[in-house]
Every structure is written in C-alpha cells, then in structure tokens.
Amino acid sequence: MTLSEIIAAKVDAYDDVPIAFNSTAEKVNERIYREVLQLMNRMQTEAGAITSSAENYALAEQIRLRMRAVLDGREYQSAVLNFANEFDLQTERSNRYFQKILGEAFDPKSEYIRAVDNSKRRAVQLLLGDSVSDTIFEPLTENLFSSISTNASLSQTQTAVKHFLVDSGQYGKLASYSQQITRDLFSVTDRNYTEAYAVDLGLDWYRYQGGKVADSRAFCVQKNGGWYHKNEVESWGRTTYVDNTKVVADGKPQPVTTSPGNWKGRIPATNSKTIFSYCGGYQCGHALLPTTRESIPDKWIQRSIERGYYMPRAVVN
Q: Helices 138-149 and 54-71 sit at what angle, rounded to 10 degrees?
C-alpha cells in the first residue's frame, strides 16, 4: 500500500467503523420497538385506559426482559464483536503508517497494545452491559409501570414509547446511545495509540487529516489537510479560537472569537495535552498524523517559523 492509501484507511475508519455499527443498532432499535408495541397491544384496558392489574404489571416486566433478549440476540452481538475487532485492525493500520513514514520495521510496544485492549473491553461493556439497561430499558419500564398505576391512556403511552425509542432525535434511542461510544472511544483510542509513538519517536510535526462527514465543524475545516508543528497544535488547546462562522455586525461579516471550551463540539477536558486525543471534539472524524520533518512542505515550515511555532536548529560546520 502507498502512504496515501494507508492514511485513507486509517482516517476513514473513524467514520466507516461507527457508521457500520450504528446501522445495525438502528435495525435492532426498530425491532425492539416493534416487539414492545406488540406486547403493549396485549395490555388490559377499560375505555382506552390501562388497568392497574397484576397481568399488566407482569406484561411490563415481560417487555423489559424482551428488550434485553433482542439485545442479546445474534444480530446485535455480532455487531459488537465486529466493532471490537476493529480496534485491532485499526492498530494494524497505525502500525503500517509508522512503518511507512519511518522506512523501517516497526515494533509495537506491548504496553500500548494493552491500552488498546482495555479500551476495546470498555467499549464492549458499554454496548452490552448495565449502561444500556440504565439508559434505555429501565426508564422505559418505569414509564410503563407509572402508566399502569395511573391508568394512563394506552394510545398516549404507546405514543410516548415511540417518541422515547424512535422519534427522540436524529437516530433511534439505541443508535443515539451507541453513536458517541463508537465514534469517540474508537477514534480517541487510536489517537492515543498514535500519539504515544509520536512522543517516543520524537516526531514534532503533524498533518491534520480527515473529514468525510459533510457537516465538519469550522475548527476542523480550517485545519484539514494542513501541516503543523507540535507547538501550534498545543496552542489550539489553550488559546482563544477564531471560528470560521461569520456574524453580521454593522452590515459587515465578522469572525466569531471563542474562548477555550467554547468552539462547537469541543470536549471541555481539551487542553494542550489532550488536544492530540480529542482533536475537534465530540464525534470528530479527524486525525493528527505525526510525521518527519523531511516530509513537511517548505511553505508550511516557513509558516510555522513566521508564526513563532518553530525555530530551525542552527547548522554547525
């Protein structure tokens, strides 16, 4: 593979891997909703109101168990397994990247591999464990218990369930929950892995690369495709930021200057150190790719010198 192909595979995974998982999550979410609705149609009612019967309470508990059973089914379990495997595949992509830019064999460190494995286990836990129940199943079940005890309208309760599971946002409840996990945990893990080697290898230059998403935030659009010294990257995490967004003042467009923590989507914990992990913020699809001084275009080196981020070492004869 060429370096361009390796970079494309590494960076595109930030979008492609979560999209693949969340596509399955949407299908599973729809299945959960259909099965919940079918069971709710069996509820005992009087004049359209849910009765406070033991049968209805038992049915609500059955709904909770059925939601869990769908999540434990082969389709969702396979999607989680495939997502977990992508952590290893992404590590391989990053290893190929370093081998290519260094022009020599690259020997991964066991402690960095263990860090990736820990993130992988954490992802599986978040996608399969109690967090899913706490976010989706338990609130919905509590809503059903409340509707039963208050003799709420069945049709209104079904509408509320539909809103909770399907219509509450851009994605269904399960995909909305998994979206940030699959995007942020996956990309931050890879950025941490990449930056650990950048430090070890003394690589102080980076290319900001990525952005298959059409609605990338202004912070990333401004920087995408550029080459930056480490000192400049660190400055992004601690200084004010001038947004591309324009507002009209006195009839003229003006840039919006925001303080640290205020650009759109910025993770509050971003600072001069964590900027290498978080980049543009929540669900950012960009990467900071460390590289050698020799690979940087002259105009970008000159730019860094002019802005005070880089001072070439004097040549001693």
A: 170
272 within 8 A of 237, measured Cβ to Cβ: yes
DSSP letter assigned to residue 136? I
Of 309, 240, 237, which is closest to residue 274 (Cα–Cα)?
Answer: 237
258: confidence class by pLDDT, cuts 50, 70, 90: low
Query: Residue 211: which pLDDT band, with cuts at 50, 70 and 90?
Result: low
Is residue 212 within 8 A of residue 113, CB to CB? The reply is: no
pLDDT tens, 273-287?
999 999 999 989 999
**Top-confidence range, 52-56, 222-226, 253-257, 266-270:** 52-56
Confidence (pTM): 0.86
Q: What is the rounded CA–CA span in Å between residue 47 and residue 131?
A: 37
Per-residue three-class SS string for 256-304? EEECCCCCCCCCCCCCCCCHHHHCCCCCCCEEEEEECHHHCCHHHHHHH
Task: Name the residue among 14, 199, 171, 178 with its Cα closest to residue 89.
Answer: 14
Tell me how far apart the alpha carbons of residues 229 and 60 are, in angstroms, rounded to a whole number. 58
| Domain residue ranges of the chain, discontinuous segments joined by + | 1-201, 203-310
Confidence of residue 118 (pLDDT cuts 50, 70, 90): very high
pLDDT score, position 313: 77
Q: Please return the burial class of 239, using the count of CB atoms within 10 Å of its CB with bins 0-12, 13-18 and 19+.
A: exposed
* Whole-number Å distance between alpha carbons of 158 and 79: 29
Phi, psi of 101 (to 5 degrees): -75, -25
Using only C-alpha atoms, the chain has a radius of gyration, in whole angstroms, of 25
What is the number of helices (H) and of strands (E) in the chain? 13, 7
Contact 183, 20 (CB under 8 A): no
Which residue is it, tokens 């729809």? 30
Return the SS3 of 237: coil
Cα 285 to Cα 92: distance, rounded to the nearest angstrom? 19
